[in-house]
Amino acid sequence: MKYKIDEIEYPVIITRKNNRHTYIRVQNNTIKVSTHYLVSKKQILNILGQNESSIRQMITKCQQKQEKQEKFFYLGNCYDIIKMPTEEVEIIGHSIYTTDEVQLQKWYQKQIKKIFEYHYQICYQKFKENIPFYRLRIRKMKTRWGVCNRKSQTITLNSELIHYEIDAIIYVIIHELSHLIHFNHSKEFWKTVETFCPNYKKMRKILKE
To answer: What is the rounded CA–CA span in Å between residue 95 and residue 87?
Structure first.
């Protein structure tokens, strides 16, 4: 099944479950519909038509994300990758010089660890409250930028944050450390975040794009 928006046909994948409602999402330029067993294709087409504006926005967001993934972003800047024999990775202007992908990824992982650990220490020291010092973990996550886990006494940062500017990394660290004072998203929590990260609203918006 296909659905046309702005003269472009998009494949539609329908998953039927015992849903009470119909849900629409866009992934890899494909419209995915989750609906009840008894909903017909004609009804699905009507639902898509009623939600065309939202679907168009989802398609645009999906395409922007794909374009970003195809480029090399480091601390908020986009770089061209130039492969040539070199003893170590170098950044010159808007280019990163590296021998190969293996050398680049080793350098990248080292930068992630160094930058995240440095700013984690700095942000922790800003808090006057007597908060515990949780162990920092770094890993790639699909849906969250950071996680504060009281049970394991760890704060986990998404390694993908390295693509964003330093202020965005600082915001996520402050966000998770603030959970050691307010383990919720109350007004008091956001006041604490704002105290140490006045531009947090701007950073949240950047991370949601």
So the answer is: 16
